[in-house]
Amino acid sequence: MRNFILALALLVSTTATAQTFRFFQTDNIHNQLRLNTKTGEVVQIQDDGQEFLVHPSTTPDNTISNRYSLYKTQNMWTYILLDSFNGKLWQCQYSVKGLEYISSWVINNQPLSSTNTAKFIVQPMTSMYQYYLINDETGSMWKFQWSTKGDDYRWIERFK
């Protein structure tokens, strides 16, 4: 009975720490980004109550929290969205100029893993446009780049 209660308490505390929504204060004081850590949806929220979709749900049926993470770049309008289960990456851009400037673009659409555990992280390199994608379970590394110049400048390659 004691073990059952201990296991139940552990389950409840783990569930309580699972966070479905995370808010990111942007460098523009009137805007925040709201990330759904289960689905990957990113919404720009302005302090006047307006909301704009930056990135649609990628995995709408996922029930596991903390699958997705947002990483701030040195460009105040650009964040990197990571699916920490499979290593997929998107460049997300919010804006105050208008809807035509709010969007997301694929950096890596190829799954690098097929398990349902968070294993990938992003680390910056010296260039503001280039980052490492690291698999914490295997130590495998990739180098990737985001860009404001177009799809030809967004890429990912295995780091040797």
Topology record:
Blueprint: H1 2-17, E1 21-25, E2 31-36, E3 42-46, E4 51-55, E5 68-72, E6 78-83, E7 89-93, E8 103-108, E9 120-124, E10 130-135, E11 141-145, E12 155-158
Antiparallel strand pairs: 1-2, 2-3, 3-4, 5-6, 6-7, 7-8, 9-10, 10-11, 11-12
Alpha-beta classification: mainly beta
Helix coverage percent:
10-25%
Tell me the series of helices and strands, N- to C-terminal.
Answer: HEEEEEEEEEEEE
Number of strands: 12
Distance between the termini: 52 Å
Largest β sheet strand count, sense and barrel closure: 4 strands, antiparallel
Number of domains: 1
Describe this structure in words.
By secondary structure, this protein is mainly beta. The chain has one domain. The chain has one helix at 2-17; strands at 21-25, 31-36, 42-46, 51-55, 68-72, 78-83, 89-93, 103-108, 120-124, 130-135, 141-145, 155-158. A hairpin with a 5-residue loop joins strand 10 (130-135) and strand 11 (141-145). Residues 10-16 have low confidence and may be disordered.
Give a brief outline of the structure.
The chain has one helix and twelve strands, in the order H-E-E-E-E-E-E-E-E-E-E-E-E. It is mainly beta and 160 residues long.
Task: Please describe the structure with a list of short key phrases separated by commas or semicolons.
four-stranded antiparallel sheet, single chain, 160 residues, mainly beta, 10% helix, globular
